[in-house]
Structures are given as structure tokens and as C-alpha cells.
Amino acid sequence: MVVLSSFPPPAEGIKLVQPNTGAFINTRDLGQGTLYIAESRVSWVSASSGQGFSLEYPHISLHAVSKDPAAFPQECLYLMLDSRLDEPDEIVENDDSGDEESTSEMSEVRFIPEDRGTLDAMYHAMTVCQTLHPDPNDSVSDEGDFEDTEEGEYCLDAGESADNDHDNGETENMESDMGQFEDADPEH
Length: 188
Description:
The chain has 188 residues and is mainly beta. It contains 2 helices and 10 strands, in the order E-E-E-E-E-E-E-E-H-E-E-H. Helices cover 11% and strands 35% of the residues.
């Protein structure tokens, strides 16, 4: 359940403060407020009531900049959560129809800044903070098969190089065979 409560915004590890930012949880418009992206959590506080909510990074499955008007009428920072945030006026009755979509185990949160030019900065701050909270169920091992160099770039460890001595013979054979099918007739 979404519980709007009075609480102080984060005081430490703040990466971005974005005033004049609208918030939607699923389809519920919470109005304008201030978004705080901190190392520990994402928080939003309403400008009118002073109430807000916080989201912990382990529950954020995905974050992205959404610019598709078919998905949402305004450009926004989109978050998908791994749990259902039920709105107070949303009553989910337990029926035995087996329809799993009506009781989805995820929620969507959208932050719409007044200045759309800040969306990339919001996304980048989220990315930096999200990496501080890795998913313990992630399939990438901690032994270091890959080394993260920069956003979106990975290097193989030195022991995993494609130029290892045991691969040289296979690589040379592949290079000499590359032209062997050039004159083949394509099959339709």
C-alpha cells in the first residue's frame, strides 16, 4: 500500500534534488513535489501537504526515461517496482477466476519534472545509486568474469582474453577458412 506520511527528506548521500516534479503511482496522480535521489533511497515529498513516500533500491526492478506518448502522455522517469503498491481507493477483490493480471505483483512509478531537460540527469543519478545496491540474486558471479569499466562497457579479465595461447591455433584456422563459402549458391 502507498502510505503518504510526513518524514524528513534524506540528509546524506543526496545525488539530485528536483523540485517541481509530479509523481504518479500506477494511475494515481499525487501532484507536484520535490524528488530526492539519494544513495540510500528515492524519496518524493508533496509541495502542498508535506507528505511523501520513499522507495528502497532493491525494490526498483527497472528505471528508464520514457518519452513514448502512447505509454504515458508526458516524458518522465519511469520506475518499475517488484511489489504491488495498492492505492487506498483501489479495492482488489479476491476472486477465483485465475486472472493473474488483476493482482499483478508489480507497480509503476513515474516522476515528471517541470523542466524535461533534467530527465537525463535524473536517470544518471538513479543509475549511480542503483549500482550501490546490487541484486543478490543477479546471475553475474562475484568472482569477476567481467570487469565494469564504464556505463555499458565491459572487459574480460586477463585470464579470459581471446588471444590466449590455447586459442591461437583455432583462430588462425578460422581466418584461413573464411573465404571457403564465397561461391556457394544461396538456398531459398
